[in-house]
User: What shape does this take?
Amino acid sequence: MSIRTITDLDISGRRVFIRVDFNVPLTPAGGVAEDTRIRESLPTIKYAIEQGARVVLASHLGRPKGRPDPKYTLVPVGQRLAELLGLEVLLTDEPVGDGARKVVGDLKAGKVALLENLRFSPAEEANDDTFSKGLASYADVYVNDAFGTAHRAHASTVGMTKYVAAKGMGLLMEREVKFLGKLLGDIDRPFVAIIGGAKVSDKIGVLENLLGRVNQLLIGGAMANTFLKAKGGHLGRSLVEEDKLALARSFLKKAEEAGVEVLLPRDAIAAPGIKSEAGKVVKASEIPEDLAALDIGPETARGFADAIARARTIFWNGPMGVFESDPFAGGTLAVARAVAASSALTVVGGGDSVAAVHKSGVADKITHISTGGGASLEFLEGKKLPGLAALEG
Assistant: This one.
């Protein structure tokens, strides 16, 4: 992949357009609830400032449906960024237009401007050419540091790159590509992948691509229910993708032929529903008719932890249960602690698994925490990400 990084580019005194991922959760009062993504962008932004660049930042936030929406303004994000940088961040009142052009045009070396939410215009997600040209008019150099959106062919990730001669990736993007790329290259074995979440259909691509790479697959979350039912289990009221049972059986057969051990839950925490205050431990393939499996059980958590302890390379994506509900978060937190205790190369991607790592207080013990859930999965499926392809050459 012949992509330059920001450190390879001449940016001194030039307008450097940096596509960042500031799609952060907000508080009910409209403040920044969690600023990890803003903090992750700081090395790239600070480098550009130190080089005397005129820094233009752009991001989306939420789903404002292609029109201005005060709920999704980047004002609180700009305020938090200013606090973290210790300098003023100028916010435009629109992503493209006369006001934004004036702010960018007046920008001095070493100063920072933040464009208003890109998705306030439907042209961003439509990858509209006129909108792309408008964004490109703010840039002498283009840098993409938003790995979380690299799998989207939008105006700010693909369209505008045609109109900017100098382009490359930021330091965060470089780190993402480095560590996720390692999982597809030569790695220390055993290589264990832990895959959770709700649906087999969401993860089957990455599961199949990993078959040729991993030694063991540990499957949890609601998607494990579909595999257990495909093997003849009784799942009670558990979430099962009935139309994916044949796909699950086919995958298990491929795994057996490839010599890959697939570990499925042996026990589960089951309850009538996700609002239940507690659950009880039952066999994972014998869920009572009035209950649903909502987390992996203690025996499964121990078995998964043993496999994780023997691994030399680990990839984890997706929770083991209904992680957002405390009675059913135990399995996910147990996996987080086991991954953190490992001396292996550890890569964690996906919102809930990343949240579990932070909730467990073990984030500093993970080799790499990916900022892109969907992007990291598509990368590991072997797909070419549009946002990366646009930077080549």
